[in-house]
Fold this sequence. Notes:
Blueprint: H1 2-11, E1 21-24, E2 30-33, H2 36-42, H3 48-63, H4 68-87, H5 92-113, H6 122-135, H7 149-156, H8 160-165
Antiparallel strand pairs: 1-2
Amino acid sequence: MAAKVLAETVRSTIGPRGMDKMMVGSIGDIVITNDGATIMKEMDVQNPAAKMLVEVAKTQDSEVGDGTTTAVVLAGELLSGAEGLLDRDVHPNVIIDGYRAAAEKAQEILDDLGVNIKPDDDEELKRIALTSLNTKGGCEGCHGEEWDQDYCRHRLHQSDEEAWKEPV
């Protein structure tokens, strides 16, 4: 139940009508945000299943740097589905086997849908970067002429290690 509440808390931050959350810390500090990663970091969670969602968010944030809200909502839905199956007396091993089979099928579908992008395909990399920046509000109105070609080309071709040393 606690994990579902946590997932619903971050779910309500999604989209154009997403709501900000106001959190008050143990010493009275106040944080107002609609960022899933921040919400998950600020929560003091004791329930084991809810702690698992916090770990999902931390892992997603450290490995990818984005998508924490989606990861938490998806994990919450998986837990909710498992809870419903447990209520119908489905054995946990059967649920795990089903989720494992679903993950394998999902990976198969993603592999089929995936498109290889060449590192020197600047136009495609530009489209991908613009899409990513627009989802974070970092490039409003950035269409073509306003795009800093040299800087972005340089950033797109940097190694991960180089990119993290330099402020964006």
